[in-house]
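Task: sequence design from structure.
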């Protein structure tokens, strides 16, 4: 069993989400986006958590559904 967890910083997480790091920081301030951890001032995301967040996003077939 592999117990290692890949941790991502803001820049790497934003790349996975196809957004700017500033958008990711704004999301954190309003409680949006994937869950994260802090070590002091350092914000880290588990790759598995980010991938799960993406997989659980709702899918739409039309903009009318918004």
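Answer:
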């Amino acid at each position: 069993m592999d117990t290692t967890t890949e941790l991502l910083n803001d820049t790497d997480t934003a790349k996975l989400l196809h957004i700017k790091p500033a958008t990711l920081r704004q999301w954190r301030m309003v409680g949006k986006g994937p869950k994260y951890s802090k070590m002091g001032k350092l914000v880290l995301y588990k790759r598995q958590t980010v991938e799960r967040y993406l997989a659980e996003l709702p899918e739409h077939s039309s903009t009318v559904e918004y």
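The chain has a mean pLDDT of 92.
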